[in-house]
Amino acid sequence: MKKIAVIPGDGIGIDVTNEALKVLEAMKSNGAEIEWDTFDYGADKYLETGITLPDEEVENFRDNYDAIFIGAVGDPRVPDMKHAKDILLGLRFKLDLYLNYRPVKLYIEELCPLKNKTIEDIDFVVFRENTEGLYSGAGGVLKRGTPDEVAIQTSINTRKGVERIIRHGFEYARQTGRKSVTMSDKSNAMRYEGDLWQRVFEEVRQEYPDIEAGHWYIDALLMQMVKRPEQFDVIVTCNMFGDIATDLGAQLAGGMGLAASGNIHPGKTSLFEPVHGSAPKYHGKDIANPLAAILTVGLMMEHLGFAEWNGRIEEAVLEAIRTNNVPRDLGGPLGTAASGDFIARQLV
Ligand code: NAD
Ligand code: IPM
Ligand code: MN
Fold this sequence. Notes:
CATH architecture of the largest domain: 3-Layer(aba) Sandwich
Helix content: 40-55%
Number of strands: 12
Radius of gyration: 20 Å
Bound molecules: nicotinamide-adenine-dinucleotide, 3-isopropylmalic acid, manganese (II) ion
Order of helices and strands: EHEHHEHEEEEHEHEHEHEEHHH
Structural class: alpha/beta
CATH topology of the largest domain: Isopropylmalate Dehydrogenase
CATH class of the largest domain: Alpha Beta
Number of helices: 11
CATH superfamily of the largest domain: Isopropylmalate Dehydrogenase
Protein backbone atom coordinates (compact mmCIF):
# COMPACT_ATOMS: atom_id res chain seq x y z
CA MET A 1 0.00 0.00 0.00
CA LYS A 2 1.41 3.41 -0.97
CA LYS A 3 0.51 6.45 1.11
CA ILE A 4 0.01 9.92 -0.31
CA ALA A 5 -0.19 13.23 1.56
CA VAL A 6 -2.49 15.63 -0.32
CA ILE A 7 -2.20 19.40 0.14
CA PRO A 8 -4.79 21.23 -1.99
CA GLY A 9 -3.21 24.61 -1.07
CA ASP A 10 -4.67 27.84 -2.41
CA GLY A 11 -6.83 29.21 -5.23
CA ILE A 12 -7.35 26.82 -8.12
CA GLY A 13 -4.97 24.44 -6.36
CA ILE A 14 -8.07 23.51 -4.36
CA ASP A 15 -10.27 23.23 -7.47
CA VAL A 16 -7.88 20.99 -9.39
CA THR A 17 -7.04 18.84 -6.35
CA ASN A 18 -10.77 17.98 -6.02
CA GLU A 19 -10.50 16.47 -9.49
CA ALA A 20 -7.18 14.77 -8.79
CA LEU A 21 -8.90 13.13 -5.79
CA LYS A 22 -11.64 11.77 -8.06
CA VAL A 23 -8.90 10.15 -10.10
CA LEU A 24 -7.29 8.66 -6.96
CA GLU A 25 -10.73 7.31 -5.94
CA ALA A 26 -11.30 5.82 -9.38
CA MET A 27 -7.93 4.06 -9.38
CA LYS A 28 -8.39 2.80 -5.84
CA SER A 29 -11.82 1.39 -6.63
CA ASN A 30 -10.18 -0.35 -9.56
CA GLY A 31 -7.52 -2.06 -7.49
CA ALA A 32 -4.71 0.50 -7.13
CA GLU A 33 -3.05 -0.01 -3.76
CA ILE A 34 -3.06 3.61 -2.61
CA GLU A 35 -4.46 5.59 0.28
CA TRP A 36 -4.21 9.24 1.15
CA ASP A 37 -4.71 11.88 3.82
CA THR A 38 -5.53 15.51 3.15
CA PHE A 39 -3.73 18.40 4.87
CA ASP A 40 -5.02 21.98 4.98
CA TYR A 41 -1.74 23.89 4.75
CA GLY A 42 -2.09 27.08 2.73
CA ALA A 43 -2.88 30.78 2.94
CA ASP A 44 -6.09 30.43 5.02
CA LYS A 45 -4.33 28.41 7.69
CA TYR A 46 -1.35 30.75 7.70
CA LEU A 47 -3.52 33.86 8.02
CA GLU A 48 -5.62 32.29 10.81
CA THR A 49 -2.85 30.66 12.85
CA GLY A 50 0.54 31.83 11.61
CA ILE A 51 1.35 28.19 10.80
CA THR A 52 2.93 27.51 7.41
CA LEU A 53 4.31 23.96 7.48
CA PRO A 54 5.75 22.70 10.78
CA ASP A 55 9.01 20.77 10.73
CA GLU A 56 7.31 17.84 12.47
CA GLU A 57 4.90 17.58 9.55
CA VAL A 58 7.77 17.51 7.07
CA GLU A 59 9.21 14.64 9.11
CA ASN A 60 5.81 12.95 9.16
CA PHE A 61 5.62 13.17 5.36
CA ARG A 62 9.17 11.87 5.03
CA ASP A 63 8.71 8.95 7.43
CA ASN A 64 5.10 7.91 6.85
CA TYR A 65 4.20 8.80 3.26
CA ASP A 66 5.53 7.69 -0.12
CA ALA A 67 4.52 10.82 -2.01
CA ILE A 68 3.04 14.27 -1.54
CA PHE A 69 0.61 15.93 -3.94
CA ILE A 70 0.19 19.72 -3.90
CA GLY A 71 -2.43 21.63 -5.95
CA ALA A 72 -0.74 25.05 -5.85
CA VAL A 73 0.15 27.68 -3.29
CA GLY A 74 0.08 31.46 -3.57
CA ASP A 75 -2.45 34.03 -2.38
CA PRO A 76 -2.66 37.78 -2.93
CA ARG A 77 -3.30 38.25 0.82
CA VAL A 78 0.25 36.97 1.46
CA PRO A 79 2.28 39.18 -0.86
CA ASP A 80 5.67 38.00 0.41
CA MET A 81 4.72 34.35 -0.28
CA LYS A 82 5.89 33.40 3.24
CA HIS A 83 3.65 30.33 3.46
CA ALA A 84 4.34 29.22 -0.10
CA LYS A 85 8.05 29.52 0.53
CA ASP A 86 7.81 27.30 3.60
CA ILE A 87 5.44 24.78 2.02
CA LEU A 88 6.70 24.40 -1.54
CA LEU A 89 10.34 25.46 -1.38
CA GLY A 90 10.50 24.08 2.18
CA LEU A 91 9.54 20.60 1.03
CA ARG A 92 11.81 20.75 -2.01
CA PHE A 93 14.79 21.69 0.16
CA LYS A 94 14.10 19.71 3.33
CA LEU A 95 13.33 16.50 1.45
CA ASP A 96 16.27 17.20 -0.89
CA LEU A 97 14.07 16.81 -3.99
CA TYR A 98 16.82 17.71 -6.40
CA LEU A 99 15.12 16.67 -9.64
CA ASN A 100 12.34 18.87 -10.90
CA TYR A 101 11.03 16.64 -13.67
CA ARG A 102 8.90 18.57 -16.14
CA PRO A 103 7.92 16.72 -19.32
CA VAL A 104 6.97 18.82 -22.35
CA LYS A 105 4.75 16.60 -24.43
CA LEU A 106 2.35 17.68 -27.14
CA TYR A 107 -0.72 15.42 -27.20
CA ILE A 108 -2.26 16.67 -30.45
CA GLU A 109 -0.89 19.05 -33.09
CA GLU A 110 -3.80 21.50 -32.81
CA LEU A 111 -2.73 22.44 -29.27
CA CYS A 112 0.68 23.74 -30.36
CA PRO A 113 0.99 27.50 -30.92
CA LEU A 114 3.84 26.93 -33.41
CA LYS A 115 3.18 26.37 -37.11
CA ASN A 116 3.74 22.94 -38.65
CA LYS A 117 4.94 21.14 -35.53
CA THR A 118 3.97 17.53 -34.95
CA ILE A 119 3.63 15.52 -31.75
CA GLU A 120 7.03 14.01 -32.54
CA ASP A 121 8.56 17.50 -32.64
CA ILE A 122 7.45 18.54 -29.18
CA ASP A 123 8.39 15.71 -26.88
CA PHE A 124 11.18 16.35 -24.42
CA VAL A 125 11.78 16.53 -20.69
CA VAL A 126 13.34 19.25 -18.59
CA PHE A 127 15.28 18.41 -15.46
CA ARG A 128 15.43 21.58 -13.43
CA GLU A 129 17.89 21.59 -10.54
CA ASN A 130 15.60 22.04 -7.56
CA THR A 131 17.62 22.64 -4.38
CA GLU A 132 20.23 25.28 -5.19
CA GLY A 133 20.96 28.27 -7.42
CA LEU A 134 19.15 31.53 -6.89
CA TYR A 135 16.45 29.72 -4.92
CA SER A 136 18.69 28.72 -2.04
CA GLY A 137 17.70 31.77 0.00
CA ALA A 138 21.24 32.99 0.47
CA GLY A 139 21.53 36.76 0.57
CA GLY A 140 20.22 39.67 2.53
CA VAL A 141 19.35 43.31 2.61
CA LEU A 142 21.05 46.34 4.02
CA LYS A 143 19.53 49.72 4.76
CA ARG A 144 16.08 48.57 3.66
CA GLY A 145 13.73 51.39 2.77
CA THR A 146 16.48 53.97 2.50
CA PRO A 147 17.97 55.47 -0.66
CA ASP A 148 21.11 53.43 0.02
CA GLU A 149 19.29 50.11 0.12
CA VAL A 150 21.24 47.02 -0.97
CA ALA A 151 19.63 43.68 -1.94
CA ILE A 152 21.75 40.60 -2.50
CA GLN A 153 20.46 37.24 -3.77
CA THR A 154 23.26 34.74 -4.13
CA SER A 155 23.27 31.79 -6.48
CA ILE A 156 24.63 28.71 -4.72
CA ASN A 157 26.02 25.94 -6.94
CA THR A 158 27.72 22.95 -5.37
CA ARG A 159 29.80 20.38 -7.19
CA LYS A 160 27.54 17.66 -5.77
CA GLY A 161 24.33 19.46 -6.73
CA VAL A 162 25.42 20.23 -10.28
CA GLU A 163 26.81 16.75 -10.84
CA ARG A 164 23.76 14.84 -9.63
CA ILE A 165 21.30 16.69 -11.86
CA ILE A 166 23.54 16.44 -14.94
CA ARG A 167 24.23 12.77 -14.28
CA HIS A 168 20.53 12.10 -13.88
CA GLY A 169 19.89 13.71 -17.27
CA PHE A 170 22.28 11.26 -18.94
CA GLU A 171 20.99 8.25 -16.96
CA TYR A 172 17.42 9.14 -17.85
CA ALA A 173 18.33 9.53 -21.52
CA ARG A 174 20.00 6.15 -21.54
CA GLN A 175 17.18 4.39 -19.69
CA THR A 176 14.41 5.86 -21.83
CA GLY A 177 16.17 5.63 -25.20
CA ARG A 178 16.43 9.39 -25.67
CA LYS A 179 19.24 10.46 -27.99
CA SER A 180 20.61 13.65 -26.47
CA VAL A 181 21.11 15.74 -23.35
CA THR A 182 21.27 19.53 -23.68
CA MET A 183 22.71 21.53 -20.82
CA SER A 184 21.82 25.19 -20.55
CA ASP A 185 23.55 27.87 -18.50
CA LYS A 186 24.72 31.45 -18.83
CA SER A 187 28.43 30.74 -18.62
CA ASN A 188 29.26 33.56 -21.01
CA ALA A 189 28.19 36.07 -18.37
CA MET A 190 28.13 34.21 -15.06
CA ARG A 191 31.69 33.10 -14.85
CA TYR A 192 31.94 31.21 -11.59
CA GLU A 193 28.81 29.10 -11.66
CA GLY A 194 29.08 28.80 -15.43
CA ASP A 195 32.58 27.36 -15.16
CA LEU A 196 31.39 24.73 -12.68
CA TRP A 197 28.41 23.69 -14.83
CA GLN A 198 30.61 23.56 -17.94
CA ARG A 199 33.34 21.46 -16.36
CA VAL A 200 30.96 19.01 -14.72
CA PHE A 201 28.97 18.61 -17.93
CA GLU A 202 32.17 17.99 -19.89
CA GLU A 203 33.28 15.36 -17.38
CA VAL A 204 30.01 13.52 -17.01
CA ARG A 205 29.30 13.37 -20.74
CA GLN A 206 32.50 11.33 -21.22
CA GLU A 207 30.81 8.52 -19.30
CA TYR A 208 27.89 8.47 -21.74
CA PRO A 209 29.42 8.20 -25.22
CA ASP A 210 26.14 6.69 -26.46
CA ILE A 211 24.25 9.94 -25.71
CA GLU A 212 24.75 13.14 -27.70
CA ALA A 213 25.65 16.12 -25.54
CA GLY A 214 24.63 19.65 -26.51
CA HIS A 215 24.71 23.10 -24.98
CA TRP A 216 22.87 26.39 -25.40
CA TYR A 217 23.12 29.54 -23.34
CA ILE A 218 19.75 30.01 -21.69
CA ASP A 219 18.70 32.95 -23.85
CA ALA A 220 19.45 30.94 -26.97
CA LEU A 221 17.81 27.84 -25.49
CA LEU A 222 14.50 29.67 -25.12
CA MET A 223 14.80 30.90 -28.70
CA GLN A 224 15.58 27.37 -29.93
CA MET A 225 12.63 25.92 -27.99
CA VAL A 226 10.42 28.03 -30.25
CA LYS A 227 12.46 27.75 -33.45
CA ARG A 228 13.44 24.08 -33.49
CA PRO A 229 11.95 22.24 -30.49
CA GLU A 230 12.39 18.91 -32.27
CA GLN A 231 16.13 19.01 -31.46
CA PHE A 232 15.47 18.45 -27.74
CA ASP A 233 15.21 15.17 -25.84
CA VAL A 234 16.46 15.98 -22.34
CA ILE A 235 17.28 19.48 -21.10
CA VAL A 236 19.21 19.97 -17.86
CA THR A 237 19.49 23.38 -16.28
CA CYS A 238 19.62 25.30 -13.01
CA ASN A 239 16.71 26.17 -10.76
CA MET A 240 15.88 29.63 -12.06
CA PHE A 241 16.41 28.94 -15.76
CA GLY A 242 14.40 25.74 -15.43
CA ASP A 243 11.51 27.63 -13.88
CA ILE A 244 11.43 30.01 -16.83
CA ALA A 245 12.02 27.39 -19.53
CA THR A 246 9.20 25.17 -18.26
CA ASP A 247 6.53 27.87 -18.48
CA LEU A 248 7.56 28.33 -22.11
CA GLY A 249 7.63 24.55 -22.53
CA ALA A 250 4.14 24.28 -21.07
CA GLN A 251 2.85 26.73 -23.65
CA LEU A 252 4.43 24.77 -26.52
CA ALA A 253 2.33 21.79 -25.48
CA GLY A 254 -1.06 23.43 -24.96
CA GLY A 255 -0.56 25.65 -21.94
CA MET A 256 -0.60 25.56 -18.17
CA GLY A 257 -3.74 23.46 -18.15
CA LEU A 258 -1.72 20.42 -19.21
CA ALA A 259 1.76 20.85 -17.66
CA ALA A 260 2.66 18.24 -15.03
CA SER A 261 5.68 17.99 -12.78
CA GLY A 262 7.46 15.97 -10.13
CA ASN A 263 9.93 17.11 -7.48
CA ILE A 264 11.88 13.94 -7.00
CA HIS A 265 14.64 12.36 -4.96
CA PRO A 266 14.89 8.84 -6.34
CA GLY A 267 13.92 6.30 -3.71
CA LYS A 268 12.62 8.89 -1.26
CA THR A 269 9.30 10.59 -0.51
CA SER A 270 8.78 12.93 -3.45
CA LEU A 271 6.42 15.79 -4.24
CA PHE A 272 4.14 16.13 -7.24
CA GLU A 273 2.42 19.33 -8.40
CA PRO A 274 1.14 20.81 -11.63
CA VAL A 275 3.48 23.47 -13.08
CA HIS A 276 0.77 26.14 -12.85
CA GLY A 277 0.06 28.32 -9.84
CA SER A 278 -3.04 29.18 -7.86
CA ALA A 279 -4.55 31.55 -10.50
CA PRO A 280 -6.66 33.24 -7.79
CA LYS A 281 -9.03 34.96 -10.23
CA TYR A 282 -10.34 31.55 -11.40
CA HIS A 283 -10.74 29.98 -7.96
CA GLY A 284 -14.13 28.44 -7.25
CA LYS A 285 -15.55 29.33 -10.66
CA ASP A 286 -15.44 25.88 -12.25
CA ILE A 287 -13.06 27.23 -14.92
CA ALA A 288 -9.60 25.88 -14.03
CA ASN A 289 -8.32 23.01 -16.10
CA PRO A 290 -7.66 20.00 -13.84
CA LEU A 291 -5.81 17.99 -16.50
CA ALA A 292 -2.35 19.25 -15.43
CA ALA A 293 -3.10 18.07 -11.90
CA ILE A 294 -4.46 14.76 -13.21
CA LEU A 295 -1.41 14.16 -15.43
CA THR A 296 0.66 15.00 -12.34
CA VAL A 297 -1.16 12.22 -10.48
CA GLY A 298 0.00 10.00 -13.37
CA LEU A 299 3.65 10.99 -12.83
CA MET A 300 3.19 10.30 -9.13
CA MET A 301 1.73 6.84 -9.83
CA GLU A 302 4.68 6.07 -12.08
CA HIS A 303 7.06 7.14 -9.33
CA LEU A 304 5.19 4.91 -6.86
CA GLY A 305 5.72 1.92 -9.12
CA PHE A 306 2.35 1.97 -10.90
CA ALA A 307 3.53 2.97 -14.39
CA GLU A 308 0.51 1.29 -15.98
CA TRP A 309 -1.78 3.79 -14.23
CA ASN A 310 0.24 6.66 -15.64
CA GLY A 311 -0.31 5.15 -19.08
CA ARG A 312 -4.05 4.86 -18.47
CA ILE A 313 -4.29 8.44 -17.23
CA GLU A 314 -2.43 9.71 -20.28
CA GLU A 315 -4.74 7.73 -22.55
CA ALA A 316 -7.79 9.15 -20.79
CA VAL A 317 -6.46 12.71 -21.17
CA LEU A 318 -5.69 12.09 -24.84
CA GLU A 319 -9.23 10.79 -25.33
CA ALA A 320 -10.61 13.90 -23.60
CA ILE A 321 -8.56 16.14 -25.90
CA ARG A 322 -9.47 14.21 -29.05
CA THR A 323 -13.20 14.34 -28.27
CA ASN A 324 -13.11 17.96 -27.03
CA ASN A 325 -14.20 16.95 -23.54
CA VAL A 326 -11.88 19.58 -22.07
CA PRO A 327 -12.15 22.97 -20.32
CA ARG A 328 -12.24 26.28 -22.08
CA ASP A 329 -8.49 27.05 -21.99
CA LEU A 330 -8.20 24.14 -24.45
CA GLY A 331 -11.20 25.33 -26.46
CA GLY A 332 -13.68 22.87 -24.96
CA PRO A 333 -17.03 23.27 -23.20
CA LEU A 334 -16.39 21.56 -19.84
CA GLY A 335 -16.02 23.04 -16.40
CA THR A 336 -13.43 21.86 -13.90
CA ALA A 337 -15.66 19.24 -12.30
CA ALA A 338 -17.03 17.80 -15.56
CA SER A 339 -13.48 17.56 -16.91
CA GLY A 340 -12.38 15.60 -13.84
CA ASP A 341 -15.50 13.40 -14.08
CA PHE A 342 -14.72 12.61 -17.72
CA ILE A 343 -11.27 11.30 -16.80
CA ALA A 344 -12.39 9.46 -13.66
CA ARG A 345 -15.14 7.65 -15.61
CA GLN A 346 -12.55 6.21 -17.95
CA LEU A 347 -10.45 4.81 -15.12
CA VAL A 348 -13.02 2.69 -13.29
P1 NAD B 1 -0.66 30.88 -12.56
O1 NAD B 1 -0.12 29.65 -13.16
O2 NAD B 1 -1.40 30.71 -11.30
O3 NAD B 1 -1.63 31.58 -13.58
C1 NAD B 1 -1.22 32.23 -14.77
C2 NAD B 1 -2.31 32.11 -15.83
O4 NAD B 1 -2.22 30.82 -16.40
C3 NAD B 1 -3.72 32.19 -15.27
O5 NAD B 1 -4.19 33.51 -15.22
C4 NAD B 1 -4.48 31.38 -16.30
O6 NAD B 1 -4.78 32.15 -17.42
C5 NAD B 1 -3.51 30.31 -16.68
N1 NAD B 1 -3.68 29.06 -15.92
C6 NAD B 1 -2.84 28.56 -14.99
N2 NAD B 1 -3.29 27.39 -14.56
C7 NAD B 1 -4.43 27.13 -15.21
C8 NAD B 1 -5.38 26.06 -15.20
N3 NAD B 1 -5.21 24.98 -14.41
N4 NAD B 1 -6.45 26.14 -16.00
C9 NAD B 1 -6.63 27.18 -16.79
N5 NAD B 1 -5.77 28.22 -16.88
C10 NAD B 1 -4.69 28.19 -16.08
O7 NAD B 1 0.56 31.89 -12.36
P2 NAD B 1 0.63 33.33 -11.65
O8 NAD B 1 -0.61 34.11 -11.96
O9 NAD B 1 1.94 33.88 -12.01
O10 NAD B 1 0.66 32.99 -10.11
C11 NAD B 1 -0.47 32.97 -9.23
C12 NAD B 1 0.02 32.54 -7.84
O11 NAD B 1 0.45 31.18 -7.89
C13 NAD B 1 1.22 33.35 -7.34
O12 NAD B 1 1.07 33.50 -5.95
C14 NAD B 1 2.40 32.44 -7.67
O13 NAD B 1 3.51 32.70 -6.87
C15 NAD B 1 1.80 31.09 -7.41
N6 NAD B 1 2.46 29.95 -8.10
C16 NAD B 1 2.47 28.78 -7.42
C17 NAD B 1 2.98 27.64 -8.04
C18 NAD B 1 2.95 26.36 -7.29
O14 NAD B 1 2.39 26.25 -6.22
N7 NAD B 1 3.54 25.30 -7.81
C19 NAD B 1 3.45 27.71 -9.34
C20 NAD B 1 3.41 28.95 -10.02
C21 NAD B 1 2.89 30.06 -9.38
C1 IPM C 1 7.03 26.68 -9.94
C2 IPM C 1 6.69 28.00 -9.26
C3 IPM C 1 7.52 28.20 -8.01
C4 IPM C 1 8.98 28.25 -8.44
C5 IPM C 1 7.15 29.45 -7.20
C6 IPM C 1 5.70 29.43 -6.76
C7 IPM C 1 8.04 29.65 -6.03
O1 IPM C 1 6.82 29.04 -10.17
O2 IPM C 1 6.93 25.63 -9.28
O3 IPM C 1 7.37 26.69 -11.13
O4 IPM C 1 9.47 29.31 -8.86
O5 IPM C 1 9.63 27.22 -8.37
MN1 MN D 1 7.21 28.40 -12.22
